[in-house]
Amino acid sequence: MKARLPHDVIFHPGPLLLVYRPRGILTEARIRAVVQFLDDAEKAAVKPFHRFTDLSKLDALDIPFKAIIAISLHRRLAYSQYPPVKSAFYVTSEAAARVIKVHVLLTDHSPLKTRMFKDLDAAAKWLGVSRDVLEAKRGGHNGRVASRE
User: Fold this and answer.
1) Nearest partner of 72 among 40, 97, 104, judged by Cα
2) DSSP labels for 5-47?
3) Among 24, 31, 55, 149, which one is most buried in terms of CB atoms within 10 A?
4) Whole-angstrom Cα distance, residue 17 to residue 50?
5) Domain boundaries 3-145, corresponding CATH code
6) What is the C-alpha to C-alpha distance for residues 24 and 10, in angstroms, rounded to an integer?
C-alpha cells in the first residue's frame, strides 16, 4: 500500500523529504489532519524521511495555545520509537515563529530534530537538499509515499 498525499503535501523520494506547504488560514483541524497523515506515513514507511514545512504562504494562524502544546507532545511521543529525522520549519511571520518556537521546544531531546528557519537557503543546507527541492511544486513520487506493504 502507498499513502495518498494530502493536496498541500509533496514527497521527494531521492532525498526522502516530505514537504508541507499550507496556504490560507492554518487551523487546528488542518494541522491535526496532516499530523494523522504523518503518523500513518511514518508507520508504513520503508525508510525514515525528513520533513520541511513552508509557512510563508499563510494568511493567518488560528490555533489555540493548548492545541499547539498537545500536538507537539503528541508528535514527540508518536515518533519516539523511530530513528532520528530532521524537521525544518520556514517562517516569515512573527505569528508563525511563535507557534514553531513552542513546537521546537517541546520536541527537543527527541528523535525529531526540529529547527525553525527564517532563511530558505539555511533550511536547505541543514536538510542537505537544494533550495529548488524545497521550492518545487511537485514531488517525484506520483502523489504517494512508499510504504512497507
Assistant:
1) 104
2) PPTTEEEETTTTEEEE---EEEEHHHHHHHHHHHHHHHHHBSS
3) 55
4) 5
5) 3.30.750.24
6) 18
Task: Report residue 71 as a C-alpha cell.
Answer: 500536538
Residues in the chain: 149
Contact assessment for residue 10 and residue 138, using Cβ atoms and an 8 Å cutoff: yes
83 SS3 class:
coil
Tell me phi and psi for residue 105, to 5 degrees: -60, -45
Q: What does R_g of the chain's alpha carbons equal in angstroms?
A: 14
Confidence grade of residue 109 (pLDDT, cut at 50, 70, 90): very high
C-alpha of 100 from chain center: 11
- Tell me the HSE value of 107 on the side-chain side, using a 13 A CA sphere: 28
- Name the helix (H) or strand (E) containing 52: strand 50-54
CB 58 within 8 A of CB 93: yes
Tell me the sheet residues that pair with 3.
145
Helix (H, G, I), strand (E, B) or coil at 55: coil
In the prediction, which pLDDT does 140 show?
A: 56
